[in-house]
What we know:
The protein has 15 helices and eight strands. The protein is α/β, with parallel strands linked by helices. Strand 6 and strand 7 (about 160-165) form a beta hairpin.
Amino acid sequence: MTYQIKIPSCSYGGEGSIEKIKEIIAKEKSQKIVVFSDEGIKATGLLDILTGQLDETGIQYHVFTDCKPEPTYGQVEAVVDMVQGQECDLIIGLGGGSVMDAAKLASVLKGASYTIKDLMNDPSQAEKKVKTVMIPTTCGTGSEATCNAIVAVPEEKSKKGIVNDNMIPDYVILDAQMIAKLPKAIVAATGVDALAHVVECFTSKKATPFSDSYALEGTKLIFANIREAYNNPDNMDAKNKMLIGAYYGGIAITGSGTTAVHALSYPLGGKFHIAHGVSNAILFAHVMKFNKDACAERLAVLCDAINPAYAQKTVTEKADYVIEQIADIVKVTNIPTDLTQYGVTMDDLEFLVTAGSQQQRLLVNNMKELSLDDIRNIYLKVVK
């Protein structure tokens, strides 16, 4: 077996690292920049921090704040079409996963003969047209490190991932001041999403020694800091470690891949517009319980990493501990544990089963094969 992992060419971290954008511009000899963000980021003042740095360089730049949360492929295409008329030699994504995914897609679509719909059918044709810088403003999506871009597909009431190594960002800036005032609900949802990334990648069929290194370290960082980052918004050390853990999770995705948690969450986002991190959180512990007999030893390794006091416990006890901790984190961060408030009813069950079973890009990574009945039984845990 041979394996590889591809990561951004240069990553900066630490409070104040946003200033490194000037170094990147100088290194790339950039003349014109396009910035992707959204109205929410603009309202917080975070966009002003970035543009202040750009103003100091005197560079020409154009800002697009039309990125939508959990966007459809049509909405992403509309934003990218606006960029087509702008000359640029560097694209910056400042925001959460949806913003960064749009920026990554723009980097392979600008001036291309193919469309986003073409990439949905055949992502292998994507070529990097413009270099990118990703600056995450949440502590969870990992998009700043991945080769993935996720879009909603309204006609299928689900989501689809476009995956190509050419979308791996060139530069990443992990500046904790970008998440200093992140609302607690978003710390919770994106933090659990990051936890799902590292746990799923570590228990994936595609896991390798490379991806394991990042997934294991990310697991340690997130388990140790997510409760504190949620409960104490002023603890910047915890938030910085969450930011790094999420970044490691993104790298792990590129080297391995998520599994059934993400696969079964996609119809929840696609049809019911439930935030990605929340839908993952609701399903997370239930999927891991289903998977336990196939990946107990892998979960035991994670237990040893996060709680050495359990060293003498059995493999089963260690696996149970990890799953219990996942469920507890969802509970203490006040994420819903079922789908009632999102209007999902038993009438939607068969749609979910069918749509979830079609997410084969991710289901093939799951250590345990899921039948339609297995998928149905997992959804029944959260559909009332």
